[in-house]
Amino acid sequence: MANLKNPTPHLKLNDGNSIPMLGFGVGTAWYKSGDASKIDQGCIDAVKTAIGVGYTHLDGAEVYKTEKELGIGVKESKVDRSKLFITTKAMEGIKDLEATLKKSLKELQLDYVDLYLIHYPFFTEKPEELQEKWKVMESLKAQGLAKSIGVSNYRVADLKAVLETATVKPAINQIEFQPYLQRTDLIAFHREHGIATAAYGPLGAITKGSPGPVDDVLAKLAKKYAVSENEICLRWCIDQDVVPVTTSGKEQRMSDYMRSAAFKLTPAEIQAINEEGKKKYFRGFFSNKFSEND
């Protein structure tokens, strides 16, 4: 079983900080649609288990309503804070980002987060408001409340607006990314401007998009590397310098996902997944907010 000495690679961000290239998320299955004050012990246990099998990158968000559970899980794991990379995001609290982050830090029982993201750009259609909010993010970084700052679900036009007035570039843009949603133009823009890419929903081609054209190539590669198709999809991200964030409540599956750090796909294998993936379009999240080309 994996442990804190696992070989998870790191990606250097444009601000000099490094992010572990496999994240454990406390959204999706753990998202609270009901009473946010009710503690979810299952989520706490999942966080502790994830840390125990070797995850050091933990991804939360204000809107998931599980920051308290993430904080308790981290505290009860008794792992040195400096060994963990913790992300949270602002959505509902976009009007007052400083107050929202301070509330998140209180819930998380932390003095700072390693990465703070604006969860999506859909709070406005005005470039000036994107710029205004980014200015606040820069202030939060300057105060030491967040080591790195970034965005999530931003399109090229959104990023262009931010970069026009930014004094600190976004370190990362966390987007939906999987074989049926390769975001070629957006990722090219990221690379051109030194913005890293993180992926949510990296297993979407399997969990939501199957059956589909990538099934056969994923099965063949899974057999070759003696892993599951899930790990092939995670490694497909990592080998393209994309940081996948996934989740599970099952210890064995969490441990299995860590195997994605133990092998590498060849360029030809990555290309084979890319080519098959381009034969189908599938978006699992925010389909009403994006065009097919975003």
What's the helix and strand layout?
Elements: E1 10-12, E2 18-20, E3 23-25, H1 41-53, E4 57-59, H2 67-77, E5 85-90, H3 97-108, E6 113-118, H4 127-142, E7 146-152, H5 156-165, E8 172-176, H6 184-192, E9 196-200, H7 204-207, H8 215-225, H9 229-238, E10 242-246, H10 251-258, H11 267-277
Parallel strand pairs: 3-4, 3-10, 4-5, 5-6, 6-7, 7-8, 8-9, 9-10
Antiparallel strand pairs: 1-2
Helix pairs in contact: 1-2, 1-10, 2-3, 4-5, 8-9
Could you characterize what this model shows?
The chain is of the alpha/beta class and 294 residues long. It is 39% helix and 16% strand. It is built from eleven helices and ten strands. The strands form two sheets. Strands 3-4-5-6-7-8-9-10 form an eight-stranded parallel β-barrel, surrounded by four helices. A two-stranded antiparallel ribbon has the order 1-2. Strand 8, helix 6 and strand 9 form a beta-alpha-beta unit. The longest helix has 16 residues, at 127-142. The chain is globular.
Looking at this protein, list some descriptive labels.
294 residues; alpha/beta; eight-stranded parallel barrel; 11 helices; 39% helix; 16% strand; globular; disordered N terminus
How much strand?
A: 15-25%
Structural class: alpha/beta
- The whole-number mean of residue pLDDT values reads 93
Count the helices. How many?
11
Estimate percent helicity. Answer: 25-40%
Strand order of the largest sheet: 3-4-5-6-7-8-9-10
Q: What letter string, H or E per element, gives the SSE order?
A: EEEHEHEHEHEHEHEHHHEHH
Uncertain stretches of 5 or more adjacent residues = 1-5
Gyration radius (Cα, Å) is 18 Å
The backbone outline, from C-alpha atoms, is globular
Ends: how far apart?
39 Å
Main sheet characteristics = 8 strands, parallel, barrel
Number of strands: 10
